[in-house]
Write a structure and sequence with these properties.
This protein is an alpha+beta fold. The protein is about 55% helix and about 20% strand. The strands form 2 sheets. A 6-stranded mixed sheet has the order 2-1-8-7-6-5. A two-stranded antiparallel ribbon has the order 3-4. The protein starts with a helix and ends with a strand.
């Protein structure tokens, strides 16, 4: 019996020792476990500094791209300006290579008259306006002169105007602009059927009394009995020809 009690006391003592040891060791195990968990968490989290570095590199690359495109556009601008200057110089050389001649100016004027394009016609008229002489001679005091600014829309006017008087009878030539056009400006197709002469009209000396040094381009339309002549009166200023007047002659009116 004493032996049994002694053994039991020994077991109880060992159990107490084991509990004491466990209580002493457990805090160290808990600390080691928490350290291990923190280490594993730290490894699983991404490196924020490396991400920041990577984002900064990408940002710098993106910023460098517009600068390159800007430099490229700046580099291309001188080329564009150079090409524009080349085209401009070529246009100037082309215009200088093809100066306006009296023949080309009269052709353009007749085209405008035939097409009733008085806006184009006005581009050949100077500040003095355009004189219309329907009676076979230039009358400085009685001829109608249309201003350059009014010429573009002149043909659409409906008010009758006295343009002078018929030779022989002395009756007034009173017509609307469109009636004047049909009778004294383009009564026949001068462009396709008339013969052209320069400074050969019988009225040249009388023309130059009013316009000294004038150049007269005449379009003569031969008829079976009578003939009609339309003469464009130009003066020259530098390399340009200015249309001063249009003289109409018709043998049927004499």
């Amino acid at each position: 019996m004493k032996k049994f009690v002694k053994v039991l006391l020994i077991l109880i003592l060992l159990l107490l020792i084991g509990c004491i040891v466990y209580l002493l060791v457990k805090p160290f195990q808990d600390h080691a476990s928490s350290s291990s968990e923190e280490s594993s968490v730290g490894e699983s989290l991404p490196d924020s500094s490396s991400e920041n570095d990577s984002s900064q590199e990408e940002s710098s690359q993106e910023e460098s791209i517009p600068q390159e495109s800007s430099e490229t556009s700046e580099a291309s601008q001188p080329e564009d300006e150079s090409s524009q200057e080349d085209e401009s110089s070529q246009g100037e050389e082309s215009s200088q290579a093809e100066p306006v001649t009296l023949e080309s100016a009269s052709q353009s004027v007749m085209d405008a008259i035939k097409q009733k394009d008085f806006r184009a016609l006005s581009s050949y008229v100077g500040d003095a306006g355009l004189r219309l002489s329907p009676a076979g001679s230039v009358e400085a005091t009685s001829d109608i002169v249309i201003s350059k600014s009014n010429l573009s829309n002149w043909l659409s006017g409906t008010t009758a105007i006295t343009f002078g008087s018929y030779p022989g009878s002395g009756a007034d030539i009173t017509l609307t602009p469109s009636e004047y056009y049909d009778k004294f400006l383009y009564p026949v197709d001068f462009l396709s059927q008339a013969s052209i002469s320069i400074n050969e009209t019988e009225a040249l000396s009388q023309i130059r009394e009013v316009y000294p040094g004038a150049q007269a381009v005449s379009y003569m339309y031969p008829g079976a009995v009578d003939w009609k002549e339309l003469t464009l009166i130009f003066t020259q200023a530098d390399s340009s020809f200015i249309l001063e007047g249009i003289l109409y002659r018709d043998t049927s009116m004499s």
